[in-house]
Design a protein that fits this description.
The protein is of the alpha/beta class. Helix content is about 50%, strand content about 10%. It has 24 helices and twelve strands. Helix 9 crosses helix 12 and helix 13 packs parallel to helix 15. The longest helix is centred in the last third of the chain and has 23 residues. It is globular, with a radius of gyration of 23 Å.
């Protein structure tokens, strides 16, 4: 997404506040003062959350576009579209509406508080209380079908809301999971023979793939263009969300039949290889579902095959989003390892059951050695899996030096945001400010955005030689560093984060 002029000016203004090298006494004092202040307020939830709302966070790497939207927005769009509410399921459905037969218009929910509360609660985790036959896991995943009629028609509106919220959260980069050209790839899959041979399937799908990719491009062009217009990104009243960089992960629906799963995977690999806006693939739907469990090894074999054909395409996978109450013990023993070793995942989403895997310590060492980042989603893990606090493996990952980043997962459905997720992580596991700062840096270091990293060393965050003599984030880097930043988008994002962090720390130090 092209940055508007106001964003570049704001960046330079922010960067100008910090002109000293990180090794200078002023910079060290500011960072130390910030860490000391953080320790002093960490046990005060209101002060902690205020601190973290102001803290620059880099990127959100695990964010489902349809789950990122609050139910209130979906209801507003449903009313605008003249959709109806099926009272039997509390799902949005297409008109015509008929209140007498249990299909009142969505506008009724805006006029009657009881119906309004019923819809918001059904389309999100608001006020959810587990009961017999209604778990947090089931309620969470059921929400998506209830607002699908709306989310399917409002990609541009959803993007606008997602980047607006990201800007409020001091986030500069989003990787959003979405399934593009969904109808086209389903139609192609249905008319393509399937014999279980991946090479045969890939060859058979190729004739229809240009039309699928063309449709995906149309959807991206249209939704991003409309988002740009909705946020007024070309004028002085531009929404702060205009400054957020957006990339997409093609999401594959793992609970569907093998022919469609393979067709979606192929679409994701082809699209990521051709369109820089799509930076990789991921697999979604409940990991404990019947088809997801039954076909897990087959799906990893699909990824292994396609990775060999498209080795440049990035892969992040949901794995280990399981608990001992959800699946038999054998189902907890291999998902993370196989996702990495056979599925070629560079990042793992959730990874909650890691200590139930075979040879867990060996797996942790492998993840640390190969720099496999884990995307930690505290609210989601608590709501869906019932795993939080001392039961969560985050401290185990930290002790094993596995890189971590905090993410939202589905902030609208979960009624959260990235600042809140940082606050939960900090209070639940007594994380220090330097640890949270490392996680923010990790979110860009392990992002799939194009270009080389600013850092030559991930462990110490040491700048590359071209920028070794410049203050990271400085407004006017030397020519060699400026040239490096100009040619590497990832490094530019990291440079901007450093400027924001230095300014944030300077502000905290000045108030002490």
């Amino acid at each position: 997404m092209k940055k508007p002029a106001f964003f570049l000016l704001a960046c330079l203004a922010g960067c100008a506040q910090v002109s000293t090298l990180p090794s200078s006494p002023v910079s060290i004092d500011a960072a130390q003062a910030t860490a000391i202040h953080f320790d002093a307020i960490r046990n005060s939830p209101p002060q902690l959350e205020a601190f973290l709302r102001a803290m620059p966070k880099g990127g959100d790497l695990h964010n489902h576009l349809s789950g990122a939207i609050y139910a209130e927005d979906y209801l507003e769009w449903a009313a605008r579209d003249r959709d109806c509410i099926d009272m039997a399921t509390v799902a949005a459905v297409a008109p015509p509406c008929d209140a007498a037969s249990g299909r009142p218009p969505a506008t009724d929910a805006q006029r009657h508080d009881i119906l309004y509360r019923k819809v918001i609660d059904a389309w999100s985790m608001r006020d959810f209380v587990a009961s017999n036959g209604n778990s947090g896991h089931d309620h969470f995943f059921d929400t998506f079908g209830k607002f699908h009629q709306v989310s399917n028609a409002h990609r541009a509106d959803m993007l606008a809301r997602a980047v607006h919220q990201a800007a409020l959260d001091r986030v500069d980069y989003l990787e959003l999971m979405d399934t593009l050209a969904d109808t086209r790839i389903r139609e192609l899959s249905e008319r393509t023979p399937w014999d279980g041979d991946f090479a045969h399937a890939r060859a058979a799908l190729q004739s229809g793939m240009p039309a699928v990719l063309a449709q995906a491009k149309v959807e991206l062009d249209s939704s991003l263009g409309r988002m740009h217009d909705e946020l007024h990104c070309d004028n002085a009243q531009a929404d702060p969300g205009c400054g957020v960089e957006v990339r997409f992960l093609y999401q594959v629906l793992r609970g569907f039949p093998q022919p469609l799963v393979f067709a979606q995977m192929l679409t994701g690999f082809e699209l990521a290889a051709r369109d820089t806006r799509v930076v990789g693939i991921n697999m979604v739907m409940p990991e404990d579902g019947y088809v997801s469990m039954r076909d897990f090894r087959v799906q990893m074999a699909m990824l292994d095959y396609l990775h060999a054909q498209y080795p440049q395409v990035h892969i992040s996978l949901h794995a280990g989003e399981l608990s001992s109450t959800m699946v038999p013990p054998d189902g907890l023993r291999f998902h993370i390892r196989d996702s990495i070793e056979q599925g070629h995942a560079q990042r793992i989403g959730h990874g909650v059951d890691v200590m139930r895997e075979d040879r867990p310590q060996e797996l942790l060492r492998e993840m640390a050695r190969n720099h496999v980042l884990v995307e930690i989603c505290p609210t989601s893990n608590r709501s869906i899996l019932g795993v939080a606090g001392v039961d969560h493996p985050l401290p185990t990952y930290l002790a094993a030096h596995v890189p971590l980043a905090i993410a939202t997962d589905d902030e609208g459905v979960s009624r959260s945001d990235l600042s809140r997720e940082f606050a939960i992580a900090a209070s639940s596991w007594q994380l220090s400010y330097p640890t949270l700062k490392t996680m923010a840096r990790n979110s860009l270091e392990y992002a799939f955005v194009a270009g080389a990293s600013l850092w030559v060393s991930r462990a110490a965050f040491e700048p590359v030689p071209a920028c070794a003599h410049d203050a990271p984030g400085a407004a006017q880097p030397a020519s060699a560093c400026a040239a490096f930043l100009s040619g590497n988008e990832k490094a530019r994002l990291q440079w901007h984060l450093e400027a924001q962090l230095h300014a944030f720390e300077a502000g905290i130090a000045a108030e002490r």
